[in-house]
Amino acid sequence: LRERLGSRSIVLVGMMGAGKSSVGKRLARRLNLPFADADVEIEQAAGMTIPEIFAHHGEPAFRDGEKKVISRLLENGPMVLATGGGAFMSDETQAAIARHGISVWLKAELDLLLRRVRRRDDRPLLKTDDPATTLARLIDLRYPVYARATLTVVSHDVPQDVMVEAVVDALA
Ligand code: S3P
């Protein structure tokens, strides 16, 4: 698999709570590749947290930084790259990922996403009265776009190592 990848990265896309970061980290270890998390890289580049970026500069500025950070990371592949849930919605980012990597959509049901995002509540887009409805709307909007990913792996509530093997199998 490493040989077939060449300089191409494995890029995990999908909703908040789908497990991109946690599965990505383990997948990288499993394949002996470096791991990068676009959200973390954006925070480092900006010198502030994602909620702070949204609050001080707004979502468009965040999206702009996200695009730049992801295209820079992709130049330095191969790696396993976890992207934020909105990243793949950009045509430009999608094209960059197609050029430099293999996109893998971690697809999860609303219930699983909700349970997961409730555990970590630092996502500006979910600071609403009704995160369930917000997530459901985002699912409607985003799933047709995520479906353009090269591979789709359905994310179940199983141990992360099982998900890692499911991704490895899909890539094989
Ligand atoms: C976002 C998802 C977040 C983060 C930001 C916006 C989104 O990343 O990039 O809060 O638009 O879905 P995760 O998918 O890693 O939570």
TrEMBL record:
Keywords: Amino-acid biosynthesis, Aromatic amino acid biosynthesis, ATP-binding, Cytoplasm, Kinase, Magnesium, Metal-binding, Nucleotide-binding, Transferase. Binds 1 Mg(2+) ion per subunit. The gene is aroK. The chain holds residues 20 to 191 of 203 of the full protein. This is Shikimate kinase. Its main location: cytoplasm. It catalyses: shikimate + ATP = 3-phosphoshikimate + ADP + H(+). Substrate binds at D39, R63, G85, R142. Its cofactor is Mg(2+). It is found in: Cytoplasm. Mg(2+) binds at S21. Catalyzes the specific phosphorylation of the 3-hydroxyl group of shikimic acid using ATP as a cosubstrate. Pathway: Metabolic intermediate biosynthesis; chorismate biosynthesis; chorismate from D-erythrose 4-phosphate and phosphoenolpyruvate: step 5/7.
